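Input record (one chain):
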Amino acid sequence: MAADGIHTVYRTATGNWANEAGSGQRVFGVHATKQESVRRGRDLARAAHCQHVIHNEDGTISSFDAVDG
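The corresponding structure, as predicted from the sequence alone:
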């Protein structure tokens, strides 16, 4: 699914949060809140057996989850 993990990122242009594969090649979902996007991103990463990287609004990394299946 996502070779370099699932990234939960803020989309400044639209003001929402998204879960993306790697550098945004594929968007798995868009959410109104960070909390909702993080929850869904963690589920996606678990299902794909990959890492989950959570970003702040400014793009810096907030946290990193090594998710085990």
